[in-house]
Write a structure and sequence with these properties.
This protein is an alpha+beta fold. It is 62% helix and 13% strand. Helix 2 runs parallel beside helix 3 (42-70) and helix 5 packs parallel to helix 8 (316-326). The radius of gyration is 41 Å and the shape is elongated.
Length: 353
């Protein structure tokens, strides 16, 4: 390939000049030595055939053959005729090969130009699709955020309207104030989750054992949801390697998944946090036996503002997915064979030296 590029970059006039100078020098020396070096005419013949194809090679071969046949002394007539025929064959053969080479290079360049054009069109279409996808995502986020904000604002507006009536009782007024405070907290949580999704803080990665994080998550989950009679347990594979992650963010993700699992499970069910090592990763699974998710909605679980809960914001799982992506891990959801869901957190394993 490199030789082809060298030939492509060499101008034809340079080959003609070198071949012409070589022909003159060879003819002078052949004249001085009485036709003893006629075999060197092959050099200018080959040079001109290379630069101008079979036509140039034929012209050069005929001219050199005339010089060989007309040169006084030297070889016999038969040897000169054989040498002239050899020059003609050389010019035609090298010229034919050179023409084929130029044709192949032109075809190659044509294909390269076509592929470059196709690549530019594909790149332009891809950029256009990315812009459309970004605009679509912004539209979905805006619509979801507006919908989630509208409901608390309606409650606040209704409570404020009631407070305007001075004849209402103190208990009624206190209830309205509580509604306003509750909806304000809801809005604050919604905006906090939205900001965490839009711009989560960079992770502070370190190698840690996941067992203590899992125990903390289970303890927090038990205290966080006391009105559910759900049993929580942990199963940890012996000899589990360290995981490379941000422990605070991992705890946030696992707590979110565990609370979701508890809320989705019926009373008397069991939520299991299990950890194992697989394919160079540490996998932490959160398994429940709840109502599960419809197969058509599994791929939408990590979309912003998509939720199957009655009072959910639809930002918990997208935030968790964003955090895992930043940590270099993965968050995947799979329906259980019987019932419920399993959410798996996959983290890079750090083997001890």
């Amino acid at each position: 390939m490199r030789n082809v590029l060298i030939r492509i970059s060499s101008p034809a006039w340079l080959w003609r000049l070198v071949s012409g100078v070589a022909l003159i020098i060879i003819a002078l020396f052949d004249l001085l030595w009485a036709g003893e070096i006629g075999q060197f005419y092959c050099l200018p013949v080959a040079g001109l055939a290379f630069s101008d194809g079979w036509k140039g090679g034929l012209v050069a071969a005929v001219f050199c053959s005339v010089l060989v046949l007309a040169m006084p002394g030297g070889l016999r007539v038969l040897d000169r005729e054989l040498e002239s025929a050899a020059l003609l064959c050389l010019g035609l053969l090298v010229g034919y090969i050179s023409d084929q080479d130029r044709t192949q290079r032109r075809d190659l360049q044509t294909r390269i130009d076509q592929l470059q054009s196709v690549y530019e069109k594909v790149q332009a279409n891809f950029e256009g699709m990315k812009r459309i996808e970004r605009l679509s995502a912004i539209g979905q986020l805006s619509a979801g955020l507006a919908h989630e904000i509208r409901n608390p604002l309606a409650s606040i507006s209704g409570a404020a309207t009631i407070l305007q009536h001075s004849h209402e009782t103190a208990s009624k007024q206190g209830k309205c104030v509580e509604i306003i405070k509750s909806e304000c907290r809801r809005l604050d949580g919604l905006l906090t989750n939205f900001l965490n999704f839009a711009k989560p803080r960079p992770p502070r990665l370190q190698a840690i054992p996941v067992a203590p994080v899992m125990e903390t998550v289970l303890e927090l989950a038990r205290h966080g949801i006391r009105d559910k009679m759900v049993h929580c347990e942990a199963k940890i594979q012996p000899g589990l390697p360290m995981a490379e992650c941000d422990p605070e963010q991992l705890e946030q993700v696992l707590l979110n998944l565990t609370i979701n699992a508890i809320e989705a499970s019926p009373d008397g069910a069991t939520v299991t946090l299990s950890a194992e090592s697989a394919a160079g990763k540490v996998a932490v699974h959160v398994t429940d036996s709840g109502h599960g998710v419809a197969p058509a909605n599994v791929d939408r679980l990590f979309d912003p503002f998509f939720t199957t809960k009655e009072h959910g914001t639809g930002l918990g799982l997208p935030v968790a997915h964003q955090i895992m992506t930043q940590m270099g891990g993965m968050l995947v959801a799979n329906p259980n064979p019987d019932q419920g869901m399993t959410f798996s957190v996959l983290l890079p394993a750090r083997t001890q030296a």
